[in-house]
Amino acid sequence: QVQLVESGGGLVQPGGSLRLSCAASGFVFSVYSMGWFRQGPGKARESVAGIEWDSSITYYSDSVKGRFTVSRDNAKNTVYLQMNSLKPEDTAVYYCNAVAFTTRNPVYGTWGQGTQVTVSS
Fold first, then answer.
1. If exposure means fewest CB atoms within 10 Å of the residue's CB, which of 2, 13, 39, 99 is most exposed?
2. Contact residues for 26 (Cβ-Cβ < 8 A; gap 6+)
3. Are the CB atoms for 31 and 38 separated by under 8 Å?
4. How would you class 41 by CB atoms within 10 Å of its CB: exposed for 0-12, middle for 13-18, buried for 19 or more?
5. Using CA atoms in the order 80, 119, 42, 70, what is the torsion angle rounded to 10 degrees?
């Protein structure tokens, strides 16, 4: 059974930083590309970052490029999202999933609970 458990969210001021974690199980983590998605209030879920199985390539949406960094530790079945210079528009629930790297589409139909990130002064 696939399980995706996101953590690390919280309330921060604009310009602050957070590091999100996603612990995965139920599939061979090291074989899959992994991605981060977010869903803001009243908005659809969007792809924000991804990383290949061996960390050789990453991608980012234009809105987070230069501010966010995705990484992974295959020994721990965990993918991370370091978020710096946070803006109010980054406020959203953040999710992870395995992804098809070229399309950035999620692999699994079942999502984790997500972790709330709120950026406000």
1. 13
2. 1, 2, 3
3. no
4. exposed
5. -20
Per DSSP, 67 falls in state: T
Cα–Cα distance list, 52 to 36, 70, 72, 79, 99 (Å): 12, 10, 9, 11, 9
Q: What are phi and psi of 24, to 5 degrees?
A: -115, 150
User: Region 25-54: what's the mean pLDDT?
Assistant: 97
In this structure, what token pair is assigned to residue 13? 């001021």
**What is the band of 83 on the pLDDT scale with cuts at 50, 70, 90?**
very high
DSSP state, 77?
A: T
pLDDT of residue 29: 96
